[in-house]
Amino acid sequence: MSNRHILFKTQVIKLGGTSQTKVGYDTLINNLDQNIKTVIVVSAMKDITNLLIKITSPEYYKYAIDTFNIIKEKNTKLATELELDISFLDEEFNFLLQMIKNINNINLQDRINIVSSGETITAKILNKYIETKELKTMYIDTTDFIDCNLPNDTLFNKGEFTVNINNFYSNFDSCNTIIVPGFRGKNINNEISLMGRGGSDTTGSLIASSLNSSRYQIWTDVNGIYTGDPNKINNVNIIPIISYDAAQEISAMGASVIHPYCIKPCKQNNIPIEIRNTFNYNTDYTTIKCTNSSSDKAIYSITKQDNITIFKIQSLNMWNNYGFVYDIFSKFKDFNVDVNIINTSQFDITTTTNDTDYVKLEKLKVVLEQKYNVIITNNCSCISIVGENLKKYDKLDLVMKSLLDFDIKLTSYSSNDMTISFIVDNDTSSRLLNNIHQIIFPYNKFILPKNAPWWQDKLLDNGPEHCKYIYNLDIVKNKINTLKELSSIDRIYYAMKANNNESILLSILKLGIGIETVSINELIVIIKLIETHYSDIVDITKQSKVNILYTPNFADINDYSLILDYPNCSKYNIIIILDNINVLESYPNVFRNKSIGLRLDLNYGIGHCSKVITQGEDSKFGMTPDEILSNISLFEDNQIKIIGIHSHMGSGITDYNHWINNTKLIYNLYQKIPNSINNIEWFDIGGGFGIDDTIDFNNLDIELSKLKSTFSKPIKIFIEPGRFIVAESGIIWGRVTQIKNKNNTKFIGTNIGMTDLIRPALYSAIHPIYFKKNIIDSLSNSQTELVTIVGQICESGDFLIKNLLVNNNIKINDSIIVTNTGAYGIVMASNYNSRKLPEQLLY
What we know:
Strand 28 and strand 29 (745-750) form a beta hairpin. This protein has 4 domains: 4-44 and 123-291, Carbamate kinase (3-Layer(aba) Sandwich); 299-440, VC0802-like; 456-469 and 728-842, Lyase, Ornithine Decarboxylase, Chain A, domain 1 (Beta Barrel), CATH 2.40.37; 491-726, Alpha-Beta Barrel (TIM Barrel), CATH 3.20.20.10. Helix content is 31%, strand content 23%. The longest helix has 25 residues, at 108-132. It contains 27 helices and 34 strands.
């Protein structure tokens, strides 16, 4: 019997939580090979396990029935979509409901039984659905053949789980497919035991190893393990083959696609692990296996872990002493605080934890301070380079140079020569992550969108003699409509410095959007345009006034005077924003009896590049809260009213939480401003919205509305999204002029230079670039090469992009299109080298 499993071929498939859908099940059935015996390990539906754990926590007892109803509804909906008679689930739902009705009296085993029920339900749903397809299948509970050697002392058993193959294998005599719930087995008391988070991954690995299966597949919603998190880094790539040890290291350092514990069982029997995308099954994927031919300097991935806390523990008594390491970390154990990185010197130990219970961490600090000097730094991120034989990696010098612009709080080199980690502030971690990824995996790749973009036909022609900007006003309108749907936003100002094209400005004005200006020149331009088209703008928008915001920086005092006394102001609601307290101190008469807004520096700057971060000690913008609060008398003596507070963080921001946090910081200052000068009616929370559908506007709207409801009085919220509105509406259309091979670099020269688009040279910005060959040939189906795209300007910094993966048959005169150039393109163009500015056209 022990060798019976070699009589036929087996495979194991683990179906993850996101795969518990009709599409997922149909894909599974369509790809089942009836010539191979298959075990399918099933996870609970996405988020169900978290809900079940919450039910069993005392603070959530009062929500238990409501949560049960959510769980039942989610699973019932899936069964209904599969056209199943849901009565077969009655037993499971009734069991769970009875447990929940007695929730105030449950013990540890009851909690375990409740939490384990999610996998039972989905496994039975899948089994029932496969039966409807007239396939031979069987449901078996993992408690019948997976054993744990310890009793249950906690929710997740820390014992060793093993497969009793004799209790399992004979079931294949009557069917080809066996469905089992993941995440559990039974302990020495014959009770359900949970493996812990990621337990379904481990369940599948244990079974595959015990059966000596031909492969173990993990089906999820991504294609495999990438060179970086595709949600955080542009142009990451699938790692096609990776060693067991490297995959385990990547998983432990933050790549959540696979749980590190599940790798060891397969490694022991050399079972390859495939990570497949349920919803794109036939695409590239990752195989984890023994790789004897790996490079002696192979880098696999760059990972990122957030919410890291650093403990720096110092004492002179550490020198030439013994026992202090045990003394320190025994206290971490007493508080159940995990530790990750540990660095030591003669007089300090620095360690990190991903525990986010800050109250507990402060208590630990107090205990440690009885003997040591302790410094805690919260809100950090760990960026890690994961590979093999890192000490031989030939680009380490470039990586280290890239760190010069960052405040590196801790550096760690792992003892297994597989990981180098850098700890930085959360706020700068994304930039460092992308910088390092670009050094180690230096190429960009742009695939033409499936839905033909509006500019695609231009690629089929030869490029124009002189490059041209082309704008699509429909995209401008669509972007504005997206913002108008935000009920929490009371006014939108378009930052005209992003693009001052007259047609674009008129289109924006006619949609009822205000205009933000940063100079007296911009103000004059927009007022002249409004005056010329005033009746059209007012008739369409049904507004009697056009809203204008003036937010200068280090402007001449005469500019302020001119605006404050500007004629015909009744047509314009012009709000002046002041960002320097020294201007009030030097010229109080100019602002006496006036109402103004104040621009803050809340030390909360965010951005895709240091040059676009507009708060913090290195930023020239804004005044600090202390400057305002320490000069209250200056406002009072001159009867200057503060009508609003403005705070702009930076550009290229994608996490909506930053606008929520910024608003909270603004409100904190608002509460401290005395009523004598406080006429505040609005908060301007800035702009900087990232493009390419990277922002969760729905949650931004929800959270901002909640926050507004807590204000002591109604306050309006303003935003100033300039780039978001126009960036994707514009392209630059040009042509290839020359091609040069020099040393190891191939240069493709174009008639688009840094005088036409300076963002790549100035901000290291990456703009998608497409050639005529993008339509004729797919990058995945023809020979490709890495190239650097440059312009005609006499500057070494004149490039559009480096290390771009393109087809190797690009020819002179071929079209080139650079996208997302509707913002900060033509407005930053110059006549350097006596070049003419590009022509601007409407689509």
